[in-house]
């Protein structure tokens, strides 16, 4: 069976660095907070060019502390999407605010033609998702936010490593939330994440991630425990120096898929302003369920990102709005295996099996 993801491959490729980094955490007896955390934050700042960085325990808590840092709370509305992992709107609700769902465009991004119509006096932020590994039109988003005095927050769980017009993800919003979940472009060996962006807001995010503390026993805000585990921090740092090579290989494979599959399937549309970082490679077809079974019978695991749009689930029913494009696409999408360690023969088997459908 060709698995959908290969969680060992990043470790095997960066093994020496990762083993040394973990040994250092044990030797220094430093498991949460402290210089190791500061080091990974510095590395992430250097890699992305962001003003500042607050590492944290997951992509989910990154979203929560980012919203808290922007002062989002009860009576505020946040415009976001439903075609995403549940963490995106969940973080809004966990801040006591109202998620206002926007439909998507042909790139699976928030449809920027619809955003302005959703803005009300209660709107505090636009929280978009860099769906599948590329960004929407950042300049247009920034203009909209400026005009209406809103915070811009990017859920970049899929897009770490992507650049918009040569500016890296991490520098394209007031705050950018990254996940280092093991399946992500750059995966830790457990939960981890970070928020990148404006120094003034990151300073607040750092307090919120650590019980609202500004010093050891002085609590300026009601916060949460969203600190990164130092084992995960050093794994992220160790992997960072290998990361561009992994993404480059994924791009090569994606190009090969697109060249060979575009006659038969809707393949990912690529934005003109950057090189897709392909967190996942998503095709569309009318016969999605039959295709998924056909591939399974050929020994290929697939996945669906995301099978249930958030707004149609019980938990988000209070914020339901009709989202025709989101709802139409959910039955058509299928994610096929894409990771840097796929071998040429696995790639050919995937392509042949798709073409024989
Ligand atoms: C779009 C999106 N946002 C947020 C998250 C949450 O990240 P984490 O699993 O690190 O909490 C994910 C991860 O699955 C995601 O895909």
Structure characterization notes:
This protein has 357 residues and is of the alpha/beta class. The protein has 2 domains: 230 residues, Type I PLP-dependent aspartate aminotransferase-like (Major domain) (Aspartate Aminotransferase, domain 2), CATH 3.40.640.10; 113 residues, Aspartate Aminotransferase, domain 1. It is 39% helix and 15% strand. The strands form 4 sheets. Strands 1-9-8-5-4-2-3 form a 7-stranded mixed sheet, with helices on both faces. Helix 7 links the parallel strand 4 and strand 5. The chain is globular. The structure holds pyridoxal-5'-phosphate. The site of pyridoxal-5'-phosphate (PLP) has 15 residues, from helix 4 and helix 5.
Name the average pLDDT.
97
Describe the largest sheet: 7 strands, mixed
Bound molecules: pyridoxal-5'-phosphate
Shape: globular
State the secondary-structure class. Answer: alpha/beta
Could you provide a short overview of the structure?
With 357 residues, this protein is of the alpha/beta class. The protein contains twelve helices and 13 strands. 39% of the residues lie in helices and 15% in strands.
Write the layout of secondary structure elements.
Blueprint: H1 9-13, H2 15-28, H3 35-48, E1 52-56, H4 59-69, E2 77-81, H5 87-94, E3 98-102, H6 112-118, E4 123-129, H7 138-148, E5 151-155, E6 163-164, E7 167-168, E8 175-179, E9 193-197, H8 199-209, E10 213-215, E11 218-219, H9 230-261, E12 281-284, H10 288-297, H11 324-329, E13 333-336, H12 344-355
Parallel strand pairs: 2-3, 2-4, 4-5, 5-8
Antiparallel strand pairs: 1-9, 6-7, 8-9, 10-11, 12-13
Helix pairs in contact: 2-9, 3-9, 4-5, 4-8, 9-12
Pyridoxal-5'-phosphate (PLP) binds at residues 58-60, 84-85, 87-88, 129, 155, 157-158, 179, 181, 191, 193.
């Amino acid at each position: 069976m060709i698995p959908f993801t290969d969680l060992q491959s990043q470790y095997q490729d960066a093994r020496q660095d990762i083993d040394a980094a973990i040994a250092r955490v044990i030797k220094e007896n430093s498991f949460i907070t402290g210089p190791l955390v500061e080091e990974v934050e510095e590395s992430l700042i250097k890699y992305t060019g962001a003003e500042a960085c607050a590492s944290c325990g997951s992509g989910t808590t990154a979203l929560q502390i980012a919203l808290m840092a922007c002062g989002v709370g009860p009576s505020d509305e946040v415009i976001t999407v439903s075609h995403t992992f549940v963490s995106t709107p969940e973080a809004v609700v966990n801040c006591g605010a109202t998620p206002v769902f926007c439909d998507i465009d042909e790139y699976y991004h928030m449809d920027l033609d619809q955003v302005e119509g959703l803005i009300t006096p209660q709107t505090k932020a636009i929280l978009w998702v860099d769906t599948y590994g590329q960004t929407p039109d950042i300049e247009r988003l920034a203009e909209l936010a400026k005009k209406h005095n809103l915070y811009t927050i990017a859920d970049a769980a899929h897009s770490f490593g992507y650049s918009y017009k040569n500016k890296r993800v991490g520098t394209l919003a007031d705050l950018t939330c990254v996940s280092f979940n093991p399946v992500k472009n750059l995966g830790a060996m457990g939960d981890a994440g970070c928020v990148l962006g404006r120094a003034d807001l990151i300073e607040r995010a750092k307090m919120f991630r650590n019980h609202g503390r500004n010093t050891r026993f002085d609590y300026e805000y009601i916060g949460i425990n969203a600190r990164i585990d130092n084992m995960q921090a050093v794994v992220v740092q160790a992997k960072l120096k290998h990361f561009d090579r992994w993404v480059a290989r994924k791009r090569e494979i994606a190009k090969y898929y697109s060249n060979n599959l575009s006659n038969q399937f809707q393949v990912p549309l690529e934005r003109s302003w950057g090189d897709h970082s392909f967190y996942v490679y998503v095709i569309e077809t009318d016969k999605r369920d039959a295709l998924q079974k056909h591939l399974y019978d050929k020994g290929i695991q697939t996945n669906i990102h995301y099978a249930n749009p958030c707004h149609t689930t019980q938990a988000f029913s209070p914020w339901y709005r009709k989202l025709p494009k989101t709802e139409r696409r959910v039955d058509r999408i299928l994610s096929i295996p894409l990771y840097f360690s796929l071998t040429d023969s696995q790639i050919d088997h995937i392509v042949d099996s798709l073409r024989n459908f």
